[in-house]
Write a structure and sequence with these properties.
The chain is about 80% helix and about 0% strand. By secondary structure, the chain is mainly α.
């Protein structure tokens, strides 16, 4: 039974390289829509931005889970894995914060700083 559990977690973890690019693209599109919605010539629905960020948050969570499962294999340098893991967790938390701000319609300083922080996390 334990061998089956290990093989299932390793199997799911192997999807991490595919899933890791999904939140990057979705969250970049979300940031683009967020920034374009500030301009009067673009009529972007706030509901669309909410959906894009929600998809980005869920895909980031899936990427974190599969990354953790992949790290259990021990095939990678533990220092690099730890750095990669904490950056991904930071990105996911900032994306969740920004989603909460977008969903509530609060456009305060935290909203602005979290959008900048999210872009920095994606670049890193």
């Amino acid at each position: 039974m334990l061998l089956l559990l290990i093989s299932i977690t390793e199997f799911i973890g192997r999807f991490h390289p595919v899933l890791v690019h999904l939140p990057i693209g979705i969250l970049l599109v979300g940031l683009l829509l967020l920034w374009l919605s500030q301009k009067k010539q673009y009529d972007i629905s706030p509901a669309v931005i909410k959906i894009v960020f929600l998809c980005g948050v869920f895909s980031a969570l899936a990427s974190c889970i599969t990354g953790y499962l992949l790290s259990l294999s021990g095939d990678y340098d533990s220092t690099l894995v730890a750095l990669h893991m904490w950056m991904a967790i930071g990105l996911t938390l900032v994306a969740m914060l920004l989603f909460a701000k977008v969903a509530s319609g609060q456009k305060d300083i935290v909203y602005k700083l979290s959008s900048i922080a999210l872009l920095i996390f994606i670049i890193i």
